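[User]
Um, tokens okay?
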Amino acid sequence: MQTLITICQSLMAVWQFPALAILTISFITFCLYGIDKWKAQHNRYRISEKTLLLTAACFGGLGAFLGMRVFRHKTKHWYFQVFVPLFMILQMALIAAVIILGRLL
């Protein structure tokens, strides 16, 4: 989990390419949901729910949302139903605000 936090911090430090960083984090999060679904089906050691939610919170909201829908994974847990869409909406709003403020300045 510490590695994921480090990756998140490193990618977000690349301010010249914030869209690329966000897409990369979302893709990693999407893959984590797919991997965890596969592990669940094959009785393997799982990725913790805390890690899945943490990556969603670290600008992986879109990837988590798509991962939940595509893989039908974690869709029955209330906290995933509430927090993943909330993270996605907040992240999109923040990105839109940065774009709008960037044009105004």
Q: What stands out?
A: The chain has one domain: 2-104. The helical segments are 2-12, 18-41, 49-71, 78-104.
